Amino acid sequence: ALSLSLPPGSRLFAPPPGPHRGAMSAEEMLDGGLADEDCDDMVNLQVLDAGTILRNLESRFGMTKPYTYVGRIVISTNPFQWIEGLYSDETIVAYSRVPDVFADLRPHVYAVARDALDNLTQQQESQSILISGESGAGKTENTKICMSYLAAVDMRAGGASAGVVEVTTRVLQTNPLLEAFGNASTTRNDNSSRFGKFIKLQYNALGKQVGAHIDTYLLERSRVVRQAPLERNFHVFHALTGGISAVEREELGVGDAPTYHYLGR
Hints:
Blueprint: E1 2-5, H1 30-33, H2 50-62, E2 67-70, E3 73-76, H3 89-97, H4 101-104, H5 109-123, E4 127-129, H6 139-156, H7 162-182, E5 183-184, E6 192-193, E7 196-203, E8 209-217, H8 235-243, H9 246-252
Parallel strand pairs: 1-7
Antiparallel strand pairs: 1-4, 2-3, 5-6, 7-8
Helix pairs in contact: 5-6, 6-7, 7-8
């Protein structure tokens, strides 16, 4: 989970329902709400059931459109490829400037981050973004994408001070370190998070990011001594045994991964 918080004293705030795209035509409603076209916001589908949702997501996946709205919820499908321009500086600027981010541009996780930041600054109340999904769905990546957007917007707003740049940079740089000690290769995902993470980004009354706090929980500690078939221990052990120099290997007496019982299976 990713939280944007203000100083103590805030109250819960439920944002009003956002506008949705206009209703689809009768031709677009064929086959239970989906013909050959795709639907950006599935609230507009005439029939909303599991089959229609999956067909729509499959259609958009084939068009390399990984994000789909259900109201103000974003469904993200892993595209298994890099999509040029999807996370560029120009895209960040576009999603930070349009009047209605949900109606004016294509679905994107940037819209959720923008919505949270707008509510934080306009309503002066803390916000939370919940990112969930099964292993390999892209939870960690989407968290980093949200953080990158918030950091970029923060640094662009009126020119960021050196302190703000340092905070946002340090927040983004924590991910590789946390992943080294908490992620591992599994049969479903080569970079699977084996722990939970709650990130709190702290803002001042002017809406500028001033700090961050990260809580980790439910680390899969049993993986240190036992891994399922075809799975590996935490990345940090393999990085140590595989990335160490020959001189350091000799000095420290570090062997290759297969020489260790907990790493060689």
